[in-house]
Amino acid sequence: MSSSGSPKSPAPPGQQFSLLPKIINGGIAGIVGVSVVFPLDLVKTRLQNQTVGPNGEKQYKNMLDCFKKTYAAEGYFGMYRGSAVNIVLITPEKAIKLAANDMFRHYLTLPDGSLPVFRQMIAGGSAGACQIVITTPMELLKIQMQDAGRIAAQAKAEGRTVQRTTALELTKKLLRERGVFGLYKGVTATAARDVSFSVVYFPLFATLNDLGPKEKPGGPTAFWWSFISGCSAGSAAALVVNPMDVVKTRMQTLTKGTGERQYSSIMDCIVKTMKYEGPTAFFKGGMCRMIVIAPLFGIAQTVYYLGIAEALLGLK
Predict the structure, then answer these.
(1) Residue ranges per domain, the chain?
(2) TM spans, by residue (predicted)?
(3) pLDDT one-digit tens code per residue, 40-92
(4) Integer Cα distance of 136 and 83 in angstroms
(5) Homologous superfamily of 18-312 in CATH?
(6) Residue 272: CB atoms within 10 Å
(7) How far apart are CA 91 and CA 96, in angstroms?
(8) What DSSP state is assigned to residue 10?
(9) What digits encode the pLDDT tens for the residues 197-237?
(10) Which pLDDT does position 17 carry in this prediction?
(11) How far apart are CA 84 and CA 145, in angstroms?
(12) Which end of the chain is flanked by fewer CB atoms within 10 Å, N or C?
């Protein structure tokens, strides 16, 4: 991480902010992170989308049961359904998120080099707002791919068949039927989740990271501590925003299973979920999401910290 990643480290006088290497590092960090944790993210999506039947019946009992059933029905590669979309779009998404946060922190740092927590929160929230231009269509397409197996399994049990579609076919269909805005279904819920996540995550990561051991006196934090800080901050932020993630996931699911509800707005989704499933429904997939986000951001922050782009561009 750059010195702007620490809440207490003053920036050297006249230091210039280099955006390009941070964008490259963010892209690399996103690809590595999502490749590692994608199967967990798929399970999270399916757990959040399933609804409880009138007699309490569930398609998946828990996270492990979802893993087993998905693997049995779709094989190893079924666990990576929708990963191509995510890997392609995670590069600009993580690049924007991590680089924008560093940029906002740089410009919000006070003359004495300090960065109060409130300013850290503004920087994080602003970075989260910037990323939704990529996050919304990425999440929309990814969710359809991830949830296709669940819908197909439910249809098979009922003696029906559901034709699966590719991300490219779905994109063309949405553009044809709804225009560009079709790819931004659920953008308000996505913004609410991503902004609130970043408001919690980045200041918490910076604080934890600053508490860790340094590679040398006055130098950057040890990379292994940055990994732990990323895991801890990511896990905490994921739990805080899980209710909005459930709402976002359900609103962005275009193909519903038998008996599953449609939602016209964020409030409609919240009211119906609370009415029919109770408050615990907002934490469906919560543990799985924490398990996904912890290594994702731990890996992302570590890769980002290593400064691969700076080395490639001869900047260090």
Answers:
(1) 18-312
(2) 20-40, 182-202, 222-241, 291-313
(3) 888 888 888 777 766 777 888 888 898 888 888 888 888 887 777 777 777 78
(4) 15
(5) Mitochondrial carrier domain (1.50.40.10)
(6) 16
(7) 9
(8) P
(9) 999 999 999 999 989 888 788 777 888 888 899 899 999 99
(10) 58
(11) 10
(12) C
